[in-house]
Amino acid sequence: MSQPTTWEPHPEPLAVSSAPLPEYGSGSLADLLPTLAAGMGVPGTTAAITELTPADRNCVFLIDGLGWEQLRAHPDEAPFLTSLLGSSRGGTGRPLTTGYPATTATSLASVGTGLPPGAHGLPGYTVRDPATGALMNQLRWQPWTSPRVWQPYPTVFQLAHAAGVHAAQVSSPAFENTPLTKVALSGGTFHGRLASEERMDLAARQLAAADRALVYTYYAELDGAGHRFGVDSDNWRGQLMHVDRLVQRLAEQLPPHSALYVTADHGMVDIPFDEQHRVDFDEDWELRAGVALLGGEGRARHVYAVPGAAADVLTCWREVLGEQFWVASRDEAIEAGWFGPQVDDRVHGRLGDVIAAARDDVLIIASEREPKESAMVGNHGSMTPAEQFVPLLQVRS
User: Fold this and answer.
1) Beta partners for residue 147, in sequence order
2) Cα-trace Rg, the chain
3) What is the mean pLDDT of the segment spanning 149-159?
4) 41's torsion region: left (phi>0), alpha (psi -120 to 50) or beta?
5) Cα(224)–Cα(159) distance, rounded to whole angstroms?
6) How does pLDDT run across 259-311, given as a tens digit for each residue?
7) Mean predicted confidence (pLDDT) in 106-116
8) What pTM value is reported for the model?
9) Mind listing the pLDDT tens digit for each residue in 18-36?
10) Distance between CA atoms of residues 366 and 250, nearest Å
11) Helix/strand/coil (H, E, C) string of the chain?
12) Which CA distances in Å does 127 have to 84, 85, 295?
């Protein structure tokens, strides 16, 4: 007589409520500039990060891709930054969170506007434009749409400038006239410099240009090295060493009554190149069924269903990916607060019918429609600590 079959219970999908939310309203990137501006008396801003002490002159140096966990794992390459870890978040030694998704366009908009993604309306790498039905890349602003229609709120730099604070951005000349800069970081004056050392020197001079100053500067190449080679590669380590020297160079030039804050837009994780860790949407008929558009990026997907298929797509994505991804409907993600405490009406349709955020070291690639993105070693976007936690290192004079 044959033995009865023992069936293994199917694991339950990850609960939407179990995703670790960003600290909107008290410790996210969106709270940084309003806190600094409030300390300088700028109307319409609130000091949400209570651990920070006001300063007359504030400089934010945002290093693209410098996650909290990656920095802590590389003390030898970044001795100066490592010496500042205890100063993070007002001396508590704690990180900030980026906001969801943890990606550059979303995070830069959160920094500059002081608003969470559900309000500023850049909720992903690529999202559907409800007016056209097409995907829009919000980092490259393709296809073009009116920046002020897409993101109508003033930036904190504009509020500060209107209040008599000297506001300035010091970055690569390539970013001066981009739509992303206009909607996220405009206000005051823009100063373009190619050489990163020159940016540090100029940022210090801009900080000293007035009794009250708000200065922003930026470095992108660490992120590029992580995407191409990984966050534990020699290339990435070399970039981190350079970044460490840049921060020290700027810190040593701070004028009196200044605070320098070193932060980032996201962390990063390396994903192995095998079928277990990289699920190819373009080759998976189950995931493609009922899907009209695939947005977002590998670890933070917006999935847009054909009319009438949203519930079936949600069910399928949960069955296929629910042990490795938090998979939510649009309404569930909004109710859970993934994009912040509010989602404006104009933003609602930009969010996927289904939203998938990775918990494990896994990607949903699209080898045919996204060949460059699918080939990246380092990736980011989701709500894991490696992606969400960013430093808020401080030097004061």
Assistant:
1) none
2) 21
3) 97
4) left
5) 32
6) 999 999 999 999 999 999 999 999 999 999 999 999 999 999 999 999 999 99
7) 98
8) 0.95
9) 999 999 999 999 999 999 9
10) 41
11) CCCCCCCCCCCCCCCHHHCCCCCCCCCEHHHHHHHHHHHCCCCCCCCCCCCCCCCCEEEEEEECCCCHHHHHCCCCCCHHHHHCHHHHHHHCCCCEECCCCCCHHHHHHHHHHCCCHHHHCCCCCEEECCCCCCEEECCCCECCCCHHHHCCCCCHHHHHHHCCCEEEEEECHHHCCCHHHHHHCCCCEEEECCCHHHHHHHHHHHHCCCCCEEEEEEECHHHHHHHHHCCCCHHHHHHHHHHHHHHHHHHCCCCCCEEEEEECCCCCEECCCCCCCEEEHHHCHHHHCCEEEEEEECCEEEEEECCCCHHHHHHHHHHHHCCCEEEEEHHHHHHHCCCCCCCCHHHHCCCCCEEEEECCCCEEECCCCCHHHHCCCEECCCCCHHHHEECCEEEEC
12) 37, 35, 5
**Contact indicator for 252, 244 with CB cutoff of 8 Å:** no
Portion of the chain with pLDDT greater than 70, in percent? 97
CB 288 within 8 A of CB 281: yes
* Count of CB atoms situated within 10 Å of the CB of 21: 16
Provide the CB-side half-sphere exposure for 339 (13 A, CA).
29
Q: Of the candidates 160, 213, 157, 166, which has an alpha carbon nearest to the alpha carbon of residue 185? A: 157
CA distance 382 to 139: 17
The two structure tokens encoding residue 25: 């309203």
Handedness of CA 190, 195, 199, 205 (dihedral sign): negative
Query: Measuring CA to CA, which residue among 228, 213, 140, 216 is closest to residue 172?
Result: 216
Do the Cβ atoms of 61 and 128 come closer than 8 Å?
no
Q: What strands lie across the sheet with 291-297, from one edge to the other?
A: 291-297, 300-305, 354-358, 325-329
Residues in the chain: 397
